[in-house]
Structure formats: structure tokens, C-alpha cells
Structure prediction request, 119 residues.
Amino acid sequence: MNSREVWVKLGEGGLHAHKTNVYAVVRKLKRGGYSFRIVERGFNGYTVSTKTERYESLEALFAEVSPRDLYRALQNHPEPDAKEVWAEELELLKKLLEKPAEKKTITPTRQATLAEVLS
Prediction:
């Protein structure tokens, strides 16, 4: 596997013994931009691929692949130098996926006695 390429698992189909896995293959291009294609890999090794599309920005690619799935695939990339290649994208995805912590207002509770409850 190439460090400039990441395979994002989108799903699987078929029966238990005859599964077909569907992947989104995102490649970071050397001259800027990204390429995207869908690959179906069958249980017997048969592979079908769609036509490669080119995107200029990572945000445009989010229409095809969810940011959470892309981030997870980049974090689990098997190549050791892949995190260096995708460092800028990892930071962008991390900021995008972080949710600001919402402060909950704590309502003060009042302790009631048994006499107040029964009356």
C-alpha cells in the first residue's frame, strides 16, 4: 500500500462466506488535490473499480466520504510515514470532528424531609 493512498471501508455485501467489501480509495496527489474512486473487492479476489474523479479540496471530498471514516482510516494506516504525508489533513479532520464541550447548568437540589413529602 502506498503512503499517499488510503482505503476507507464503506461497507460489505453478500452472504457470510461470499462477502464483497466496498472501499473508497482516496489518494493525495503530488501537485495538489485528491483523487477518489470506489473499489469493490470480492471474496474470490475479483475487483471492480469506478472511474477516478479528481477533487481540489478535502472539503469537496466530504460529499463522497464522511470525515469520521476518513479520519479513522488515516489513523489506522499501515504505512509508518503516512501520518507525515497526511499531517495537514489529520489536523483539519481533528478540528472538524472535535465538538466543543457544552457546559451543563446544574440546578440546585433541595432536600425535603419526610414530613414535607407526606403532607
The longest strand covers residues 5-13.
